[in-house]
Each structure stands twice: as structure tokens, then as C-alpha cells.
Design brief:
The chain is of the alpha/beta class. Helices cover about 45% and strands about 15% of the residues. It has one domain (about 15-240): Alpha-Beta Barrel (TIM Barrel). The protein has helices spanning about 1-10, 35-55, 70-90, 115-120, 135-140, 150-160, 195-200, 205-210, 220-240, and strands spanning about 20-25, 60, 65, 95-100, 110, 130-135, 165-170, 175, 185, 215. The chain binds zinc ion. The site of zinc ion has 4 residues, from loops.
Length: about 240
Amino acid sequence: MDIIGFKEKMKEFNISFDDVLVHSGYLINLATPNDENWEKSINLMKEEIRITSLLGIKYFNVHPGSHLGEGDEFGYDRIAKALDIILEEVNNLGVNILLENVAKKGGNIGWKMEQLGEIIKRSNFSGKLGITYDTCHGFDSNYDIRDRDDVRRLLDEIDKYIGLEKFKMIHLNDSKFSLGAGKDRHEFIGKGEIGIKGFETFLSFDEIIKLPMHLETPGDDTEHAEDIKVIKRIFSNIYI
Ligand SMILES: [Zn+2]
């Protein structure tokens, strides 16, 4: 019943199933060195992908994980192996997995485009993998999207290490903290360190504007409605 209701609402609000994703639960860590937690993460992710498929959604978004001190090399292999085990079982459900860039902090893997590319390269199912770019996490990791040259550098990195065709979604968030802070604290659009001008720059690139975008800003429906208004204003400033 919930599934039917969900699909009806999608139709009612005219939202395409190509434009949405399911975000994984935050307990999942595909890079953990702890075997028990690694297996639990794999099993939970399989289950969540089955639900994604039942809802008719084609993209499943996950943070690659934290190696908890074991190092990046360990992490790349651990994540790629987990993705292979998962996809061996759910490959036929029509769901693609999107690896999201994360904030540079702790043992997090995937704050650099090169790291996301490394995971994808090491998986046997690279054709089923793509990426989501989160503007707050990227800003936390020194991608200064307020600057045109830096946006170009980001796109070039995605092209070089991952392939622009695998760049599928955007998480649009401002950042409470300054460039490179690695704090991962989302802020309302325009109210943080990226700011209105920063988003005007970021959203003026063809490679970005064509992608579906999701807000992950704090607050409730009223505050999200305000964020959407701000973004629409930014669009009208760029594309008169
Ligand atoms: Zn995000």
C-alpha cells in the first residue's frame, strides 16, 4: 500500500523516477575493518536496494565509508569487494549505486574525486556505479565552487578519474563552516560560506545544471520551501 501511495504521489507532483534517489542508512560502512559490521553493512544495503527497486527508484546513494585508520588502499579494496558482493545478488533489480563524495574528516574515503574513481575502477560492476556530488562535503574538502576555475577543476577531475557520464546527481547544500574545514555541517542555501554568489558560479556550468538536484539543508518543510525559492532566484539571476 505504501508503495502504491508513493508511486501515486510521484505522479501527482510530476516527479520523474529518473530524478530521485534513495539515501542509504547511516549505519552502513562498507570500508570498516570489523568483519561483523562489514557483513551487516552488506546485508543491510542489499535489503535497502530491494526496497529501492520496489519503489521504482533507479538510484541508491551511499557514502563510501571510513577505513577507521586502516588506510585508503585497504578502504578501496574493502568497498569494491562489498559492492561486488551486493551487486552479484541485486544486479538484476535495475538499481544503480551512486557513491557520494564525503567531507574530508577521519578515515572517510571519497572526499576526492580520485578516490571515488579508484573504488569504481576496482569493482567488477563499474557499469552499475556512478557518483553524487554534495556541495557542502566538497567545500569541506577544499573544492571551492565559488571560483569558476575551481568548478572547472572539479569537473576535469570527475572526467579524468570517473567519467562525466557517471556524474548523475547533485546534493545542494551550503556549508556552515569555511573552506576545507571538514566539519560536515549543512546550511541553508545562501546562508553559509558558499553563499548566493558561490551557487551562482557553481550552477552556471552546463555539466551541472542538467543534473537532478536534491536539498539536504536543515529545518522543516517551511524552511525547505524557502531554500527552493532562493535557488529559483539564483537560477533567474544566471539564466535571464
Ligand atoms: Zn549529501
